[in-house]
Amino acid sequence: MAGSAAMYHAMTSLGFASASPYKGPIKLNGDPKGASVLILGAGLAGMTAALELRNAGYKVQILEFNDRAGGRNWTLRGGDSFSELGGFRQTCEFESGLYINPGPWRIPYHHRALLDYCKRFGVSLEPFIQLNYNALIHSSRAFDGAPQRIRAVKADFQGQVSELLAKVTQQGKLDEAVTKEDQEVLLHALRSWGALDHDYKYKANLISAGFRGYARDPGGGLDAIPLSGDPLALSEILKSRVWRYLQNFANYNFQTTMFQPVGGMDMIGKAFAKEVGDLIRYNAKVTRIQQDDRGVTVSYVDTAGPATVQLAKADWCICTIPLSILSQLPVDVSAAMKSAIDAVPYAGSVKVGLQFKRRFWEEDEAIYGGISYTDLPIRQIAYPDSGFNRSGRGVLLGAYLFDGANAYEFTAMTPAERVARTVEFGAMIHPQYRDEFENGVAVAWHRVPFVLGCSGDWSEEARATHYRDLCQIDGRIALAGEHASALPAWQEGAILSALDAIARLHHRVMRT
Amino acid sequence: MAGSAAMYHAMTSLGFASASPYKGPIKLNGDPKGASVLILGAGLAGMTAALELRNAGYKVQILEFNDRAGGRNWTLRGGDSFSELGGFRQTCEFESGLYINPGPWRIPYHHRALLDYCKRFGVSLEPFIQLNYNALIHSSRAFDGAPQRIRAVKADFQGQVSELLAKVTQQGKLDEAVTKEDQEVLLHALRSWGALDHDYKYKANLISAGFRGYARDPGGGLDAIPLSGDPLALSEILKSRVWRYLQNFANYNFQTTMFQPVGGMDMIGKAFAKEVGDLIRYNAKVTRIQQDDRGVTVSYVDTAGPATVQLAKADWCICTIPLSILSQLPVDVSAAMKSAIDAVPYAGSVKVGLQFKRRFWEEDEAIYGGISYTDLPIRQIAYPDSGFNRSGRGVLLGAYLFDGANAYEFTAMTPAERVARTVEFGAMIHPQYRDEFENGVAVAWHRVPFVLGCSGDWSEEARATHYRDLCQIDGRIALAGEHASALPAWQEGAILSALDAIARLHHRVMRT
Predict the structure, then answer these.
(1) Of A14, A151, A193, the CB nearest to B255
(2) Which range of residues forms the domain containing residue B113?
(3) Helix runs in A2-106, H state only
(4) Same domain, residue pair A314 and A165
(5) Torsion angle defined by CA atoms of residues B336, B338, B339 and B340, in that order, rounded to the nearest 10 degrees
(6) Are residues B45 and B103 in the same domain?
(7) What is the pLDDT of residues B361-419, one digit of tens each?
(8) pTM given for the model
(9) Is B404 found in the same domain as B367?
(10) Chain A neighbors of B214, CB-CB under 8 A
């Protein structure tokens, strides 16, 4: 009986799915009787809405600005060309099979809706490595500018913090806060967790080396004895401020197991497009959105054809156009929704992909995937999470800037300058850049015509004031997209917002 | 100039390769003039030696007990049969494409020799997930027997330890140990690292939820607001002793990025065998090893043929036979080496693979790969690190016992009993076992005829007394294998020991 009680607890305390707002494939019961829906934007939000509404019996049409589906779900491969605001046109020169994802590039395990669509569509996934213990943390103002292994910084910080707490525990300074009994166990736990020695010290020895790494690794045969290295002093770690990177690794959004689609993030957009591609009108630039009691009328021009305004009509509209664009269009919505549309600035972000002659990060430095962090403007270097241990060329993400002055500065440069600066900064961490670099491609999201930013950058105040207004169905129009979610910049937010919007829309249609 | 000084530091402090005893492909210069080497055992050590010695000009022959190469580098798939000591014979019934690795199953990024052979042979690698934040920690005597998410235990422990240290810092109790200036930064660091709030408290709020996970995840549309859950009390975590699992995740041997070969660990053994398979005589059970001034003579019987003793002769011998077996054979070596051979007991280990009708751990619980830990005799449940997010059947590692009474107890059972017990215990963590289990296979290493244990279990004392004697070239015989390394149970140890042995052997041959 104790067993079955325990089992009951186990079952209720698990049920992870209950933490996700996604409860499995949406069920839109009831016949919409030929009602039509016009969807603006063939990104993940728009295509999710199109797929599920058509399945439910709606007549669906999508207008899409680009000549491809997916929106920010986008992968750049050799031969791909794109233009940015200001007129610069880049053609990616990567070798076949190599790519970067300029937009979303990782999928948390708890993004249940996105994962479910991947499963339904048969999109293959592989692990995305967020934390690689052997990648680097670099501060240009600490450790004489020398990059440090993440494993060393992490172990040395955790070890010395544990040592401090063990010390005050032994000195009786925790007596008010922790019972004597718990203090004894706490000491054991700190020794285990902090890699402390028998005297609760964190030192250069084989205990700490078992976490921070060795000066010489254990080997085989006669010459097998391992040697420990010297820990970084806590004071030095504190002053370097590199501890702020440690927070990142255990973040719910970045925890193992993360995923990326095999072959590029756009495998998801392409899989959606395989389902609803027949509904999409490409190269359709929306210029006006009107509604009245009877329906919605959207004006658009064909960006690839003559500039004549064309009209699309439907009973209802799901608009997934980014607010950065939508706020510039005449749209017939309430003042409250219009205020909400105008309330959200879009974050800047720059990603630079670099191709190298060889995967020197693996060959020379045993860095397989994951991310190095730096206080240089490039901020991150992310190593490819596929093709591990192979010979030949490789592409890494040489810069990932978001927010802040550096993102603006890089956005203001020409694409060639962005790439050159990225190589220059990166060479301060990986000197091999100088000999091995071949070509690069740089996407500055504030200059990407279809979104003018990487994602909606809600302030807490703006969200408190405007979020619910943004998400209400306004007459015959509902908005969807990552901007209409509590998961800004995540694909899951786009999909969940679309599912929420169409569920409410369907409810309204069924009532009327 | 400051830049170039920094660069110099960067380059010297990196150079990870220098920490590994492996410095790239071995170079055996000089002509051995037809010298012959008999290698005993076609595991990774033996095949490494064979490959490199033949390349260097030696005449090489390998005797192997099994009817396949690889030794403990072994993968079980549907249709594979094997017998254990005591006579039990199992046939694996897994669906095509599913497998378990009864022996080694993961490759650290710092195992440079093994990774280099994988690269040379074109063995494809994929990430092995050691730490999955969403996997479980289970204590049958804590939390009412309910499994806890690793993310929650980890965040709650780290958070409350950080809170304690922040508190004593603010109370001035660190004044002797830490400068005032460092204390200020330490508080910031603890807030960041421990997910503390503005007042340095770890609480149920969206800050801690951003690490431990949410009661309700952030969503999309109107119903998007996330909810935090209640942390586990530090006292409860301490008493549960589940903190001892936390140490595992950052261990140098288990740090990201780990690997497994795509399709099974034996892809490596097969790749070696593709190179040296023509040198291997299979089903050869060694019964005696003799040497004199002129050479080595090894007696063996063909386990698949008549029991007549056959002889193999060579100038030199590399013996990779596990010490558990070798200690039972008459071997002409010095008393010192014989003592060393006799000094190493072999660790017990049991692995049980279970096939289920569906990947319920992914579908129901969002556990993709990685390992759950329990104080039940099964100790670990490891989820498959390939085929993520697919429909259909799946195989997981239902038990991984090593050392201790439970390993002996499971070894003593029949294979069918091991599987049944594994299912019974596992169902206390995953109740889905009851409906979804299909079949299983159980390898108890103490009963595996070719090794009688999973690896050499050196005590510190035995190593201090005997290790160097074991690794010396004794007359014309040198030993190799994981037992002749400081990396017991690791494939890297087997390879490095072989490289070290053949380098010394070649040196001796060149001298004579």
Answers:
(1) A151
(2) 76-134+256-264+347-447
(3) 2-13, 44-55
(4) no
(5) 90
(6) no
(7) 999 999 999 999 999 999 999 999 999 999 999 999 999 999 889 999 999 999 999 99
(8) 0.96
(9) yes
(10) 19, 252
